[in-house]
Amino acid sequence: MTPTLQKARHNVSVDELLKPAANLVEEEPYYLPSGPEVSIFEQCHLQKLAVMLKGPTGCGKTRFVEYMAWRMGRPLVTIPCHDDLTASDLIGRYLIRHDGTVWQDGPLTRAVREGAICYLDEVVEARQDTVVILHALTDHRRILPIDKTGETVRAAPGFQLVVSYNPGYQRMLKDLKPSTRQRFVAMDLDFPPAEQEARIVTRESGTDEPTARGLVDLAHRIRSLRDRGLAEVPSTRLLIATASLVSNGIPVKEACYAALISPLSDDESLVGAMRDLVDATFV
Ligand SMILES: Nc1ncnc2c1ncn2[C@@H]1O[C@H](COP(=O)(O)OP(=O)(O)OP(=O)(O)O)[C@@H](O)[C@H]1O
Ligand SMILES: [Mg+2]
Question: Is ligand 1 within 6 A of the CB of residue 205?
Answer without folding.
Answer: no
